[in-house]
Each structure stands twice: as structure tokens, then as C-alpha cells.
Amino acid sequence: MPYKLGTSYFSTRILSHVEKDLKEIKKQKCSFVVHTFDETDLYYNQENMKKITALTHKMGMEVYYTPWSIGGIFGGETFSKFVMQYPDACQVLSTGERVGNACPRHPKFRALIKFWIEAASYAGGDVLFWDEPHLWIAEWNERESKKDEFACRCSVCQEDFQKIYGKPYPAAMTKEVEEFRDATLVGFLDFATSTAKQVNPKLKNTVCILPHDRRWPNPMWEAVGALKNVDIVATDPYWKARPYDTGQRWPLEGYVDLSAQRILDLAQRHKKEAQGWVQIFALSKKEEKDITKAFQMWEKSGVKNIAAWGFMACQSYSLLASERPEKCWRLMGDYYKKLAKKK
Ligand SMILES: [Zn+2]
Fold first, then answer.
1. Which residue among 41, 103, 155, 250 is least enclosed by CB atoms within 10 Å?
2. Residues of the chain with pLDDT under 70
3. Domains of the chain
4. Which residues are CB-contacts of 164 (< 8 A; sequence separation ≥ 6)?
5. pTM greater than 0.85 (yes/no)
6. How far is the CA of 157 from the centre of ligand 1 (A)?
7. Distance 205 CA to ligand 1 centre (A)
8. How far is the CA of 106 from the centre of ligand 1 (A)?
9. Distance from the CA of 143 to the center of ligand 1, in angstroms?
């Protein structure tokens, strides 16, 4: 099987710019583009998304869409209108504090996801990329993580917990709470991926699982792998934390290679395709060499669907951009050109 190689793309909706950038992406031997499809695109830009998709297809590349920051429960550096409009559908911490992230169990949020899937189908994409689904993360909100401060304990979650366990939802972390929190995300992903197939049976689903979780074997990974409507399982071991993430840094060795092995193993056991992501953003000049090392690890793992975040090393976002974005982008392209020649 030949390699499938990709990059994410965002920021520009001016079609002449997009066309120029897509030519550049194609030149680097990409066979797919992960277009962000955020709430702004959903409310105000559906026609442009359709045109961008047609341009990408015309150049022979597959189109993925990611629900970027939608409801604040996926990866992405942008904002959600939904959480402002429907605070009653947002997550509640164990401390009682309401936060700006939608609750994946809330029917109003699920209706938004269905609306997004319909828009994605209308725009003509091939793969829905459910990226980094997560409950509220302290470190992505300028907080320190505390054991007994967690989401979600909203009224919908409390009611579901009572139904399943026959007792009230505790305000402290327990084994049952851990299990329930996993089920919140997995149940939501089951809903999202099956709705996608109902809306348009041609749509494929990828779930990109955050590799941060130290539990192993990890029940959340297993449950995602077992979901019937998931076609591709992915993970994104970004060894250097995002600039706004106050949490732990990860080493390159022992993290990227281990995550690659784990996702391939999960994919093989559940008869899915595996996909791996390489960080080319937020790197200093000194750290550029890590890009090639990370690609080598993915190549060695045997995963043949590989992508980089993101176009031109995120030059369009100053906080995320690498120090020398063109150079990082070239390092990706050099590796892709080598992989594209292999069978
Ligand atoms: Zn909830």
C-alpha cells in the first residue's frame, strides 16, 4: 500500500490564496488535506468550504474536515459561539463551576453536531476527523490540574450517572467516575460517527485520540477502537506542548515511537486503519531536527497514513508558528518526497 500523506490547513478562505496554498501542499506530495471546519465556517462559510473542497479534489487530494474547537471539546485554536449561546448545555465541574465547553451528553450539543455533519456532507468532504475529543482540561485553561476538579457533572450527566449506577454522582474522583467520564466521550463518538454514516454512507470517520492519558492499557483507546463506524484511528504525540498548555512536556523518544506502536496495535486488533500525526509547529530553530526524527519513528512503526500539523508550520498563528516555519515545512516535504517513492 502506498503512503497516504497529509497536512492540516486553516486561516484562509480567500479562494485565490487557498488555490496557491493547495498547489504548494500538492508539491510536497500530500495526498490529503485536513481542512478545519469550525463554527465560523459552519454559520458563515459553507459555500466557501464547498469551493475549497472542490479545489482540493481537483488537485487529486482527499478532503478531511475537523470540527475545530466546536463546542470547545475538540482540538483547535478558535472559539465557539455555541457555548456562549447555550451556557445551559455546557460542562459543569465537580466544584459546581460551569465552564465554556459543551457537554457531549447534552441533546442541544448533539443537535449542533448533527448540523455540522450535514454541512460537511453538503460541502463534499471525504473523511470526518474527530480530533482530540476531550472533557474540560485544566491545563488548556490556565489552571493547574487537581485530582477532584473534573468535568462533567452537569444535570444531564448526574441524571445519566444515577440511571447507570443507581446512586448519586460523587463530587470526588472514583473508579466509577473515571469509567463514566470515558463513557461520556465514547458514547458521544458513537453518536457522531453513526450519525455521519446515516447522513451520508460515503463519509469515513477518523478519531484522533489524545495520547496524554497515562493509563495503560487504556479503556478509552480500546472503546474507540471498537466503535463500529470508526474507519481510522489516529493519535498525535506532540512532544513539545502547545504554547498555551501549562501541563507536562513529553520527551520525543519513548513518546512518539510508543504512541505509534500503540495506535498501530489498536488499529490491527480492531481492523481499522492507523494514522499518525507529527508536530511541525511551535518548534525553535534548535528543535527542527526533531521533525525528521519523528517522521522516522512513524515510518519505522509501519503506520502508512501520516500527517503533519500544520500548513507552513502554522505561520498564520503567531503563537503556534515555528521559529522558521518555511524550514520546518521543507523538512516535512523532504520526508514526504522520500516516502511517496516507497510502496
Ligand atoms: Zn454533562
1. 155
2. none
3. 4-79+107-136+176-341 (3.20.20.330)
4. 180
5. yes
6. 4
7. 24
8. 7
9. 20
